[in-house]
Amino acid sequence: MTELSRFLFGRRARRRWIHLILGGALAMPYVFVGQLVVGPATDSRYVFNDLPLQLLSFAVGLPLATITAVLFPLTRPLEAGAVRSLCGVEAGLLAYGPARTRTAKGRAAAWFTLHLGFGGIIAGMSLAVPPFAGFLAALPLLVWLGGEELVELPDALDHTWVLVLAPVAGVATMVALAGCAAVCGSLLARWAPALLGPTPEDRLAAVEARAADLAVRNRLARELHDSVGHALSAVTLQASAARRVLDSDPEFVREALAAIEDTTRRTVGELDAVLGVLRDGDTPGTAPAPTLAADLDGLLRRTRAGGLRVTATLAADAEALPPVLSREAYRIVQEGLSNALKHAGEGVTVRLWIEVADGHLRITVENPVATARECRPGGGHGLRGIADRTRLLGGTTEAGAARGTWRLHVRLPMTGPEDLPVKGPA
């Protein structure tokens, strides 16, 4: 009995009843249009006072509701929002984007028609049944107050039994109304995921959007790792080297502090530019992305200020490189030098080559590695970031240790002129 009472009059049942009444309200304009058709067709002046003609007008207007749902793609998200709030359907089972495909429009139109159809019936019953049920419940009181002159009862019926059963009939009528509303609401809630849920095309679009979002996030993660990670490694080694020679080599200390200042200033600008993309409603930072042409010399100077000897050979005109290639190549060189700073050990020389050959920009970084640090299977996040950047540009990456030397070799296809002027050591 408790379950039945909850099914008929519980909170969910009441909210679904409201949803049906809203459907009836939405159906009224279509019913009025139907009356404009039915009236002249049946030569009736008072369609509103004739129940069969009203039902016929309702039947004529429903196809117009179907057409409306097909023509207006926003019908689906509006209906999905109402179903989620009033019918108790889980949000993940519904689609909230406009219906774009033929399948999605057909499902949305079917749902809209069912909602208005069931809603029109239940709304009409909700207007007519309660007054009638109230009259039946109050019939004995009316007869007692005013006599049979106030309420005329049919002579063919036993008036005593009519007065006894009338209140029971009134209550039963209200229960029947609640039952009809509960059943219709349950049916709509069961059909909603199939008709308002995402179609295969919607799921594919959602997967593509998520993949694009993940690609952006991965790119931001690579930018943060390459810029901030390199800066922290460089600043740590620069500060360590300056501390060791603080009393014996003041000039080197001044250079290291200047490099630390330059590194942190540039990194803060890059960090602001990247984080600006992540802040909702914020404007991305305006710090330009570093390139080989703009900052290779500065990168080498800051790396050397950390006490690492770097021999660099630039056999390509950095100014002539395409901007995208120059930017990604800078990050690759930065990460290669960062790895050398962290893993090469002290008192070693790092060799860097940047050249153009066979239509490719070739970047090679070599440095000795300490015996205890040679085995790093798969490398760290930096090597994965280099591999990702190279793959997006259609290039190849080779990295590994052999005979005590760590070697990183990257080949990036050129998108600009292949015959670039050669420069000497940097």
Automatic annotation (TrEMBL):
Leading EC class? transferase
Chain ranges passing through the membrane: 20-41, 53-74, 108-141, 161-189
Q: Which reaction does this chain catalyze?
A: ATP + protein L-histidine = ADP + protein N-phospho-L-histidine
Q: Which GO terms describe its molecular function?
A: ATP binding; phosphorelay sensor kinase activity; protein dimerization activity
Q: What is its EC number?
A: 2.7.13.3
Reading the lineage from the top rank, the first entry is Bacteria
Protein name per its UniProtKB record = histidine kinase
PANTHER family named in the record: NITRATE/NITRITE SENSOR PROTEIN NARX-RELATED, NITRATE_NITRITE SENSOR PROTEIN NARQ
Coiled-coil region(s) = none
* Residues of the Signal transduction histidine kinase subgroup 3 dimerisation and phosphoacceptor domain: 217-281
